[in-house]
Every structure is written in structure tokens, then in C-alpha cells.
Write a structure and sequence with these properties.
homohexamer, Ferritin, 2 domains, 47% helix, globular, Ferritin-like_SF (chains A, B, C, D, E, F), Mn_catalase_dom (chains A, B, C, D, E, F), Ferritin-like (chains A, B, C, D, E, F), Manganese catalase family protein (chains A, B, C, D, E, F)
Chain lengths: 293, 293, 293, 293, 293, 293
């Protein structure tokens, strides 16, 4: 169960309105790596969890914080829009290019649809999607997904920080940046702990019987491009991070197989085939005629 | 530039048709973590790369291999569908529940739209989307995204391995599992190398002036749920992975702020407001009347 | 069957071009509550209707009018774009910020894709989707959906009215506003008539045997937030609109249940589990080995 | 801020596994009218609210309860999947049509992607979308949207009730049905209270100066289909629900306007035009040539 | 304006219910090449048309017929679902694999969401999208799009014909097949007429000054794959269909250019760069510090 | 298999940065008819091909070239963004409307998400989708789809040509225009060759037994609109392109059928029905009660 308190975790009030920035902030509210994503991602990971205790408790604990971040951003966006020019005729004096420029850069649905309110969309107005979430049940994979989400999210917030001079907005962003720092650290610590405890290991999933994979190519770097310096990295020679092999480097594939012949499905799918098959088709349609009529 | 060779990297021919499995395989072809995703993700990361040399060369080298994996899966799917019952009346004898069951589990668009062919969709028939891709320009974030993609992908292939007994299919999957093992190792090695070289560091992005974030909350685990064991992990006490702090544990938030008052945008957005504002609205519409008529 | 007449229901010609406004108008053409939505929503409700006569006749009668509204808006948009600067180099003199501002605010696909034409998208360029439609077969639910659609639509048209001074556009909007007034009234009248005739009732669906619902919580307002004034409304005490109960107010839930233990699906899904299950996994993979090899 | 408690509002445990039903339940978790929709819809309405006090307090109070409903359904789905056949080879004995039938009816991503877990999608596997939400800032419109959402939702839960015999599932549904009953009543009561207080009125938005709409057609039922009984309803004669007019009935439109002539945008959009314009095109390209070369 | 008549163009009643087939038929109702697509595609082409007269009249004339085809299919689907097993418990006797198989193959939203009704989705339950439409304003391109739509559509209907034995369904399909035959012929005739009249020509758009394209590669077949027989077609030698050149065949590209160096955007985007740039970054952040603090 | 070479097919470097144009170019990279579409469309057609030899070889040969075009556009876009104002505070001096106008017209996700990089989206920021692809297995239909794709694509590139004065950009476009000219010619030549060889014919699919379609309406132009000049085209009289009939012209339909009566699905779907059925419902629920309790 979730309980709501009409307080914010941190002050979320801008110094002044800024409708273009209100659109930009939508990215970290409703974008691929926005707060709706992490709130629901951690929650679904917890709901689908197969192990009670500390890992699930942490998922619940952080996921619920993120719902509050959604709220801080929605509140901030509504305030950024409050007194901003949003296309209502009198402000949109068409002879004033400064105002026209502002309006051109806004999310017009924030005005027309939400009446100067926040929406569950990204900075291009694409609705948030359930497919932004990752929750596989394998915690080493999922904690890596979470670390990535917090990294991408912090990169975006850092960029947004430089796109405004508003102290109120920057204060909120400085708070979110700090929480992203924390959460990056937490997911990385948790991924490490999973491995130290032996609960999971590399390669993920570690319980899959590794001899069932085609081990001859498990540590070969096959370079399908012509950039020679690709061989210079620690991913092309030396021991592998999973501790089970040695990297080797190869220009191009080490295996190959002939392309299988084209398929010939039932003639009644009306795919184009070579001549002999056309005969089959006629035969087929004759059979069909006999059968059906 | 890309050049195509009419050979496959590995044998991709099933022992027998299996239309339901053909649908399942779509997940690792056109799903969130399928081969189209990784092929285009690594390619966009290379095209957007800000640094020449080994990292970009590796991105190109692996990305181009993945396009070939798309091809192997598409070829396999077409063959799995070739002689399978796909709803053409004669096979779909309605009194035979075994065939009806098979047809019920197929992707009907593989039959109706593609004529027994592969499609750029996932196992539920959702079209692949450009939003599956991550390419931020920050390589530590992006290599973490790539490690995650290879982990999620290998988990899915491992599950699919147990959903068939077909030796031809399993052979292909054993090859893909091995390549996922390789690529997991490569991205993790590359992420480590970025940090050892000092090119990037934690927290991502490491170049953002860290004193601009609200450092007081950068290492606090704020548990917004009531699971007490969340404090037992290495994410709740001890040094942080970024080497810059110590974790501390707190039940709930350590900061709070009052909810800002509701916004009052221009009355001509026709949002519902409290009484005094209604008066403003009337005044507004009077002004509007005077102005416009 | 539908028959088309090359006339419009109302004059739809702007006084002057306005490409930014052409983008805004897309909202009520191809947005969530635009004319494509209501045209197809009422039509699908009619096609799926289970009752002949006045209700279905009304659905067909209004739905068909709405297709004509799609046409009026598409025609208007094409004219708003006709002589407008759309980025063709000569108008887009980059040193003129006024023109640059206009172009920045346009839907670029109206220019690049449609060649200065209307599109089946909303004001942010999101394609219209079949999921905008509601048609459940239950007419009380669906007429409520229709009333909502006409309300949201009229709110949007009212906002758009204030975003232009063009008399031609405003004339069309004044017509659409009037039709939305009519249709709001019609759906509300129809919803009332359904109840007066006893065809449907509250709660929807009224035919579901009400004793099968957990009646103890059917009229309890459980406040999961801490806003105390929530108790002050007619939704927290007094008789309920369905005439079958009395509202009561409660801070938080009146029931609770322990969280069920985490699930343990087949080990071959490779989810992360606690230690004992790891043993099971090993056992499982041994069994698997024996069985498969 | 949101706080989480590791308890459920109601017991959510099935008697037995049922993977097909787990897919069906996704509809009321992640569908157009599922619990994610109402949780976020009411929350966004609260965050965008322009009026403090009882209405906003109610929005927060109900919205937060709905997040807990998301949790109950996710938990239930994971349990329904726990021991169910999900395509792992040994259960999917292909000679057993009963098991094949079950697998055919499952959401394959619940198995392949989520490892027997719940997902943020509907019963056809379409990801939940931010565009499912309605939050316009006009509370009469939005409360009508909410009443509709609870009606559609309860209709779906009622249908799902008849699609299972599992007592554990039915118990949860009986609880959700009761809460939907409550929330239908609440939104209708709130919509009525808004009007009684004079905060909002019909037609929505009531503050728009009504004389600016084309009043001659505000109460005309224009029947664009040929179903004569459409005139028999209370929507075709008598006083209108907004109390401001009288319905009248008309076969077809009462107004018309000629179709405006086709548009002729800049020739460099390469649209097809009639002959004279072709000449203009040539001229245009000559000018263009002179200008550019 | 559109006027509706409560008649169908052709009898649309099945002999017996078939819920699985009802799902399949959704493809030609709400799929990429279904009737909603062609109805709206031809209508938008007409609304955006730049030329009055026969071409636009034809677009309107066919587009309006297609709306009636949407209606026939929706009506047919509702009837196919009418008495079909749709998961209501009593029919879904779980011990009967035949019924379970049927239910597994149905569109569950037709039951749960639409109450045994048609929906604006394809056979995999993906909602129809405005992006299915093509309307560029160039009639030669658009008529080619239309010919393609009718070809893809007829292929799908032909496949569906073989997926049922129901005479009522087959009768409707035989009618739709004939209309698709007609419309294929019409769009091809119209495309030819455009060229004979000189209104449009190859290559499309023909008015673009052809000397502005890089003519040296305008008729070279550059084979980027290794299939040698690609040179055997009429697309590799001989005169070109546009009458302006001769095809020539080349193994691979005839031109090339070095890959441009990686980009170095503003350091405050926090992209990863090589070492020298890291120095710039530090400098940048120092400047930034001086400027902002 | 695909092999990558770190060279471009043609020089792809702009003279100067232009962030607004970078957004526009996304259309031909990631739009409905952009390069990702044709690259994957031709590849899927090849993978699903049922005929070896020249047609499949051509599909592979052109498809692989198109992947290189994706690369040229991505590279160009990254360079257009490199030094452009993208909202970083110092350039976005708010008092300068010229810069504000530029920023307003950019794709904000290119800045916030990709850090000044290209993305797999169109010019409105909609992600590319797998549903942009057409691959039916019938080559006459598919080559017509390909001709259309190259026509729409060339129209868009031609429009984009006039939206910039940048010589570097125009050079790349002149190259793409020439390749589109080539590919239009190739697909049209291939479609003609298919027919000359007798592999396919009109109407598509030509193997469907034509007497099974309702031949009485196969060549009737039924004008459902009132534009009389529709009869003046070669699509309304004279021989049909398929060589099998004569066009005839008719005002409106030549056939009709009564609308079937409304459906009455199981009462437990809770659809609204007329009175007699209400009685059935009660009976049904009584039965249900008896059965279940």
C-alpha cells in the first residue's frame, strides 16, 4: 500500500515562469529515463521479486521515493507554466518575435490539453510507455538496468542544469542530482553484493549450464568493422571479467554457414516463387477447387 | 558503409517447423532487448561518438555483427513457419484441438501480413521502436546500458532455450548465448577501462561539478518503505562505490518542504478555481468582451 | 454505408495563413479528444450496439456528423498552411527572428511529409491511435465516456479560440463550440433516459449481482493522503448517488492483508532467489542435464 | 511524498495457478482503464489542480489508494504465473493439446521477458501509455472522465469475474468491484457538488462566454443517418440538461457552405496541381535557378 | 459532409460464430493496410489536394466507399463473436482443450474491453495509428501508395479467404476481393493518366530540377551484397523506366568519402571525449564557475 | 552477414551548424519513409523471400546500401548539431529572440537525451517503428511498396533541399536524390519484369482463383461522393490495366443489404440490451446464482 503526504521532499518552486523549460523538464518526468520509469521499474522489480529480504526491501524503499520525485517535477512544471505566455492571443502579439519564439518552443499540449499543467510525456510530447520498464526477475541484470537508468537520468539532469539560470529550478535539480548519485552508488553496491554472496554471477544468467553455450566463440572479439584500434582495448586480450576465459581478437567472423534456401510456404499465402513452384500453385488451386466446390 | 555477404555467421535451420516458437523467437529479434535494438544502439553510439579510436572502433565492430544476428533470427523464423499450420483451412481442422491450440499460440500477422515470414516486432506483436535505443554520448553510461542489454538478452535467450527441444534451434541459441557472454564481458571491460584511464568516473557524468549537487543527501539511503532489512546491505553503510562518501541509512526522508500553493494560470484556460478567482474570470471576460467587440 | 457531399457543414476558411495555428488545430482533429476520436467512437458504439432503435440511431446520427467535422478541420488546416512560411529557404531568412520563430513553432511534418497539408496527428505530432476510442457495449458507461469526450473537446476548442484573432478561424470554432454544447447535452440526456427507463443503473454495470461485491467497503471513503478537508464533500457522508448506501469517511484503509511471500517460478527462468532455492536450481540443472543429454 | 507499507489492502492470492488468466488480469492493471491509469490520472489532476481544499484532497486520497491496487494486481498476477505451464519444454509436451492450448493463450512476454512476472501492459501486451490519462484542469470535465474510468473499469472487472472460478481471484475482484462502486459514486457526487456550488456548470467549460458560440445550432439534433427513431429520445425535444435551451430535431444539416477551392502552396513542395500552376512551377524553378546559381 | 444510411453495401453475416476468426478479421479492419487506413488515406489525400476536378472527385468517391467497408467488417466481427466462447467460465471448461484452444487464439480485448465487439486494432491487438496513412500532396507518389495499399490489402484478404470455410464470411471476402481488384486497377489507371497528361512524371517528383541531383549515380546499380545474379535483371542494364538514362551495374560503391572526425559539442553535454578535450572541459567548468558564482 | 567499413558513400559534412535543420533531417533518417525504413524493408523482404536468384540478390544489394545511407544521415545530423545553440544557458540569452527562435525549433531530445546526437526518430520526435515496414512475400505488391517508398522519400528530400542553403547539406541531398531516382527506376523495372516473366500479374495476388471473387463488381467505379468529373478519367470507362475487364461508372452503390440485427452476446458481458433481454439477464443471473452458490 502507498500512503501520500501533502509535502514535498524538497522545495520545488521556480523563481519565474518559463514555458520552454517546462517542456524540457518533461524529459525527466515522463521520458525513457524519467522518474515515472524508475518509480514503476523498481516497483515492478519488487512485485515480481523471488527473494524476500534486503534486496526487495531496497527496491520498495527506493521505488517509493521516486514516486515523490514524479510529484516534485509535476509541481515544478505547473508552476513554470503558471504565468508564462502560452499562446493566449494577447500575449502572443505576433509582431513580437521574442514571444513568438517562446511559444514556438513550448509543448502545445501543456496549454491546449492540460490547461497549463504537467503531462505524462517526454520533452517531445511522446507519451510515457510501459515498455520503458525493465524487470526480468534476474537481479544482477535488473540492478545493472537500474544503474544505467540512474546514469542516463543524471546525465540528462546535468544537461538540464545548464539550460536554465533559475535558482529555484537549479535547487531542485541539485537535489535530484544528489539522489541520482546515491542511487547509482546503491545499485552498483547491490550488484557487487549479489556476486560476493554468490547469488548471481557473470555471465548473466549465471545458472544457465555454461557448457550448453557454444564455448568456442565465448571470448572471441570478432571485429565486423575495419577499425584496427578496436584490438587495443582490454576487451580484446587478457582475462575476461567473468573470470572464465581469455579474450582473443579476430578480424571478422571465425565461423560461417551457407544461407539456407528460400522457404516455400503453402501456395495459398500467395508469395512469389520460382517457376516450378508456380506449377505447384496451379496444382494446389486445382486441388482446392476440387475440394471446395 | 555496410557490405552484405550471403552467408550466415552460424547455421540457422530448425529440425522441424514450429509456428508457436517462431512467435516466441520474435522477442529476441524485434523486442526491447532483441538484436535490432543492439545493432542500432551500438551503431548510433558510434555515429554520435565524440572520441575516435578504440572505443568507437569497438562500437562499430560489435554493432555490425549484431545486424548479422538479426538476419540469422529472421531466417530461422521463416523456416520455423515454412511448413507449420498457420490457419489455412485444411490444417485448421476445427475438431482437432491440437492444431487449434498451435494456431491460437501463433503470431497471426506472421501468417496474414507476412505470408509466413519474420517481422520487426516482439513476441506479442508490438512493433520494434526507436525508443528501445540508448545513446547518450556519455560512454560510461552507454556501456552500462550495453552491459544491461546483453544481460537481459542472454536471460531471454536462456529462457527460450528451455522452450524447445529442436536441435537446430538450440544450436543457434547456443551460439547466441556465447556471443552474449562475450559482449557482456566486453562492455564491462570497456566500462572499467574508461574509469582506469580517467576518461569517465562515478558518479556519471563525472565532469559535472559535484559541489553543485546537494551533497547533504548524496549518500543517504532514505527508505520510503517499511522493510527493515533494507539497512542490512552494503548500500546502507560503509564506503560508496564512487569512493567519495559513506552510506548512511534513514527511515524515510531527511528533508521536506511544504506543497506549493495551487497555480492560477490565465482564466481563459478554463481551469476550475476557488471562488475569488471566479470573480477574476468574470472580470477577465468583461475585459475580453470590451477588447474584442 | 456512408455517402459524401462536396459541401461543408459550415464555412471553414481563415482570413490569413498561420502555420503555427495550423499545428495547434491538429489537436482537435487528431488528438485524444479530437474529431477522429468522436467520429469513430460513436460509430464503433453503434456497430457493436446490442439494442436497435433510438440509442443506436442517435449514435449513427451524431457519429456521421463528426466525420464531417474532421473534414472541416482538415480543410481549414490546409488553408492555414497555404501561404505560410514553412521553411522553404527564401522565407526562412535566418536573420529574421520573426520568421524563424514561426517556423520553430510549426509541425514540420505538415511541411516535409504532407507538403503543406493536414495530418492524422495531434498538436505534438503524435499519430492518432485506435486506443483513443471507448466502446464497451454498456451504454451508460459509454454515454458517460461520450459526455466526457465532448467536455474535454469543448475545453480544448475554447482554449484554441483565445489563441487566434483570425475571424475565419473563430467562426468555425464558434460553430464547433455550439455543436459540442449540443452533444454534451445529448449524451447527458441519453444517460439519464437509460436510467429512467431502467435499462441501466448505478453502479455500472448495474446487472452484476451486487451481493457478489465486497459490500463492506462499497461506500467507504478511504483517504490515503493527509488532506483533511477531503471529508468535507458530499462524497464523504450522506446518501450515495446510486441510492443504495451512505458514504462514510476513514483515514486510510479499513482492511489489510499481509504481503504474500515471493513467488518461486521454475528455476529455468533464471530469476534470483534466496539460498535454498539455489540448491534447487542446481538440482534442477542436474535433472535437466540427465534428461537432455 | 509517497510512503510504502509492505501490506496489501486486501488478500490477493489465487487458489491455483492460471497463466491465461494472468494475461487477462493485465487489462485491469495496465490497460486503458486499468489501475495504472486511474492512479496516475487522479495524481496528475491533483498536481495540476488550481484549487486547494476538498477537491484536491480527494484526488490525492483516491489516487494514492489506486497505486495500492496496482500492487495488488501485480502481486496476484505473479502468483497466478508461479507454477503455471509457461512453455518450458517439459510442460509443453506437444502431444498434449490441453497444455498447448494454455500456453497459446498466455502473454509470452510474461514468461520470456519478465520470468513469470507482471508487466505494465494490457491483456494484448500493448504497453501502458501516458496518453491513457486525462487531466485538463477543468474539474467538471475531469470528474466526468473519472466517473467514466470507474464505470469502464468496473465493467471489465465484472467480465473478468465470470472468466474464473478461482475463489482467491474472485475475492480480490469482489473487493475491486466494491471500490469501483465507491469511486463511481464519489466522482458523480463531486461533479454534482461542483455544479451546486456554482464552481462549474454546463456546458463545460461554463465560463466561456456562451454568446461567442454559434447559438443557432446549440440545441439542434442534426441526424446525419437515416434512423428515424433517433427523434424519439429526450435528446431530440424538450428542455436541455444545461437548462439553457430546447432540443429540436432535424434530418441532416441546417447549414452548409461550399467546399473551399484547393490550396496552392509553394511550388517547391512538389504537390500536383492543375495546368496553370504547372506554368508557375516552371517559372518558379527558373527564378530559383537564377537566384541560386 | 458525410451522410450515413443504415444499409450495408453487401451482406455481412457469418453462418456461425468463430471468435478466433473475428480476431483475424481485425487485420483488414484496423491493420496497416486495413479499411480504416484506406478510408482515411484517400480522404486526407482529397482534403489536401491541390487540384480540383477528376482526381479529387475520385479520391472522395472511393474514400467514402471505404468507410462503408469499415462498417461491414465491424458488423461481421460483432456477429462472429456473438455466440462464441469468449472465456466466460461455463464455456471455458478447462478440461476441454478444444474450447481452451479457441479462447487462447482470441483477441481478449474483444471480450474484456468491448464485450464481444469489434475494435480499431489489428489482428495482434495493436491500435490503428494515424501513421498508417500516406498523403504527400504529390499524386503520382500517392496513387502508387494507393495501388500498394490495395495490393497488400487484397493479398491479406486472399489469405483470410483460405482460413475459413464459413460461406457467409467467404461471400463478404469475395466482395472485398472484387473491390480491391477494382481499386488496384483504378489507381494504376490514374497513375498512368497523370503521366500521359504530363501532370507528373518519373522520377517523382518530376518538377525538381533534375540537374540538381548528382546525375553521375542516377542510374548505377551499386550491389552492396555478393549475389551476382542481381546483374541479370532489367534493372541492371538497358533503358530506365523514366526514359532518361541507361542502367549500369557495379559491384559495390562507385564513390566514397572519409568518415568525418567525431564531433565535439559543448562540454556541458558531458559526452565522453579524448584527453585533450578533457582539458577543455576543466577549462570550461572553471569558466563556468567564474561566470555563475 | 554485414561488414562495416569506416568510410561513407558520399561526403556528409555541412558548411555550418544548424540545429533546426538537424531536426528536419531526422525525417529522412527515422521517419515513415526514411532510410531506416527502406534498409530494413528490403532486408526483411530478402530474408522472407521464397525465390532465390536475381530478385533476392537485388533486395540484398539495395538494402545494404540503405544501411549506409542511415549512417550518412546520422553523421550529418551530429555535425549539424556540433556547434549549434542547443539551449545551454549562455547561448540561450533570453533577450535574443533569434537564438530563442532557433532553440524553439530544435528537437530537444537531440540535446537532452543524445547530447547533440542523431536519434532513431522522425522530425516530430516520434520513434521509428517496425510497422513502417512492408514485406508480404508477394513481390509484385512489395516492389510497388518499394517504388512508393522511394517516391515519398524523394519528395521529402526534394522539399528538404529547398529548406537549406548549406552547400555541404545540399551536396549530400543531391546524392540521395540521385539514388532515389535510381531505386524508383529499379523497383518499377523489377515490377514490370515480374509481370513479363509471368511470375506475378494483376490483380495482385494473381494466383488467387479470380472466379472466387464477386466479379459483378470487379470493374465498377462506384462513386460515393457527388463529384461528377470522377467519371471523366480512364478509371471510369475503357479497358482495365489488368487486361481482364472494362471499367463502368455508377453513382453510388450497385448492391445493398439490410443492416443485420444487433448482436446479443452472453448477458454476463453486461452490454445494454432492449427490454426482453433484460429479462433474460435476470434469468441468467438466477441460473448463475444457482450454479455458483
Amino acid at each position: 500500500m502507498f500512503f501520500h503526504k501533502q509535502e514535498l521532499q524538497f522545495k520545488s518552486t521556480p523563481d519565474k515562469p518559463d514555458a520552454v523549460y517546462a517542456r524540457k523538464l518533461q524529459e525527466v518526468l515522463g521520458g525513457q529515463y524519467g522518474e515515472i520509469t524508475v518509480a514503476l521499474q523498481y516497483s515492478f522489480q519488487a512485485w515480481n521479486s523471488h527473494v524476500p529480504g534486503k534486496y526487495r526491501d531496497m527496491l520498495f524503499g527506493i521505488g517509493s521515493e521516486e514516486f515523490g520525485h514524479v510529484e516534485m517535477l509535476a509541481t515544478m512544471i505547473a508552476q513554470l507554466l503558471e504565468k508564462a505566455p502560452l499562446g493566449i492571443t494577447d500575449d502572443a502579439v505576433q509582431s513580437d518575435p521574442a514571444i513568438a519564439a517562446v511559444i514556438g518552443g513550448t509543448d502545445m499540449q501543456q496549454a491546449i490539453v492540460a490547461g497549463a499543467g504537467a503531462r505524462a510525456v517526454d520533452s517531445n510530447g511522446n507519451p510515457w510507455q510501459g515498455s520503458c520498464i525493465t524487470a526480468s526477475g534476474n537481479l544482477l541484470a535488473d540492478f545493472t538496468a537500474n544503474a544505467n537508468a540512474e546514469m542516463q537520468g543524471r546525465v540528462q539532469v546535468a544537461r538540464l542544469y545548464h539550460m536554465t539560470d533559475d535558482h529555484g529550478v537549479r535547487d531542485l535539480l541539485s537535489f535530484l542530482l544528489a539522489r541520482d548519485t546515491m542511487h547509482q552508488n546503491q545499485w552498483l553496491a547491490a550488484a557487487r553484493e549479489l556476486q560476493e554472496e554468490g547469488a548471481e554471477n557473470l555471465p548473466v544468467p549465471s545458472n544457465f549450464p555454461i557448457k550448453k553455450e557454444e564455448r568456442s566463440v565465448s571470448y572471441q572479439y570478432l571485429n565486423f568493422s575495419d577499425g584496427a584500434t578496436a584490438a587495443d582495448g582490454s576487451w580484446a586480450s587478457g582475462p575476461t571479467p567473468d573470470g572464465k576465459g581469455e579474450f582473443s581478437y579476430h578480424d571478422g567472423p571465425t565461423t560461417s554457414a551457407p544461407m539456407p534456401p528460400p522457404t516455400h510456404p503453402d501456395a495459398r499465402f500467395y508469395g512469389t516463387t520460382e517457376l516450378p513452384n508456380t506449377v505447384e500453385k496451379v496444382a494446389g488451386s486445382v486441388q482446392d477447387k476440387l475440394r471446395k466446390e
